[in-house]
Design a protein that fits this description.
This protein has 129 residues and is α+β, with helices and mostly antiparallel strands. It contains 5 helices and 4 strands; from the N terminus they run ββααββααα. It has one domain. β3 and β4 form a beta hairpin.
């Protein structure tokens, strides 16, 4: 199944569970890595981790609320830059394709909409997700 991008405050994001599948890593290990990246970024005054990783959660099959992250395009680039070899290459190709497709689809839709219609649509997308 093709990974799904989610609109968060007007920007496309990928759920960390999807990213973990794409890179062949356990989700908890990716979460550990992302937390370390955020910790390192937050020590640098000019770096803002929410531009890369957005805290979120999901409901497990047992009904528990569990943590996850939404990765922006910059977050995916960050993860990809930490990888080497075939897995890194495949992940980069996948996320670049996903984000570019998303942008093209939204450009085509927005070309026929007023700015008010675009704002309403973005609020509706944010609310649904």
């Amino acid at each position: 199944m093709k990974p799904q991008l989610f609109n968060f405050n007007g920007q496309p994001t990928l759920d960390s569970r999807e990213v973990a599948k794409m890179i062949g890593k356990r989700h908890r290990d990716l979460m550990r890595d992302i937390r370390r990246y955020i910790n390192d970024m937050d020590e640098g005054a000019k770096l803002r981790s929410p531009k890369f990783f957005i805290e979120s959660n999901y409901e497990s099959s047992q009904g528990k609320l569990l943590p996850c992250y939404l990765l922006t395009k910059m977050g995916c680039e960050f993860v990809a830059n930490k990888m080497t070899g075939k897995k890194g290459t495949l992940f980069t190709a996948q996320y670049v394709s996903l984000f570019n497709e998303y942008q093209e689809e939204h450009k085509a839709i927005e070309a026929h909409m007023t700015s008010d219609e675009i704002a309403v649509r973005n609020r509706e997308l944010d609310f649904k997700e």
